[in-house]
């Protein structure tokens, strides 16, 4: 990290790296009268500095979606910045925000940095559990599918069709695609097994420059159709070509999805 700024004339840009359990929030974006990640953060910042502080998030996660490495940026007047330290700010925010959120780092950033617009890559992970018995420890963080026999190899073949630059109209909520640019670039789609607290799961890892509303969850639901052998892997290519939300599979449950990290 660069040396702490001593500029007393220009607002200072800071970035938080945080994790949260999405089950306790109505999504990331502030909403009047609802508990959200952004709303909780801005309330805490307002308490600390006694004025409104507007934040920008790297990803607007939906209600129930978790984050491991969400990034949030904001600007502070130099007098506020000089009156605290980064470590004290991190500690204070952890004390003032919800127990379902943890601020892991506070960093000073160059002028003009934006958690949203400066990001070059976002990584999401979706977790499935395929078992006749519902998991205990992973239950809040996975999509439990009570069918143990899943063709993971077919899912991998299907996922390959998603890599590259495509029109993902079929993989976003219909309302969000109206008069919007639906071209996105997927850098990689990987499926691998993992073990957490002694319980196994299948992880869908997706890296891309940006994502549409519910895009990852619709991809997760569509790949499951292939894994359950209801569709052939080539069907994913047909869904992309259709440019119609009705052509894709179901939207996977929110609790299985985590915003894993953001790269700049």
Structural write-up:
The chain has helices spanning 37-49, 78-82, 86-96, 152-159, 215-227, 235-242; strands spanning 12-20, 55-57, 66-76, 101-109, 121-130, 143-145, 164-167, 183-196, 199-208, 257-263. By secondary structure, the chain is α+β, with helices and mostly antiparallel strands. Strands 1, 2, 3, 4, 5, 6, 7, 8, 9 and 10 form a ten-stranded mixed sheet that branches. Strand 8 (183-196) and strand 9 form a beta hairpin.
Q: Can you describe this structure in just a few lines?
A:
The chain is 22% helix and 30% strand. By secondary structure, the chain is an alpha+beta fold.
What descriptors fit this protein?
single chain; 264 residues; alpha+beta; 10-stranded mixed β-sheet; 6 helices; 30% strand
Layout of secondary structure:
Layout: E1 12-20, H1 37-49, E2 55-57, E3 66-76, H2 78-82, H3 86-96, E4 101-109, E5 121-130, E6 143-145, H4 152-159, E7 164-167, E8 183-196, E9 199-208, H5 215-227, H6 235-242, E10 257-263
Parallel strand pairs: 3-10, 5-6
Antiparallel strand pairs: 1-3, 1-4, 2-3, 5-9, 5-10, 7-8, 8-9
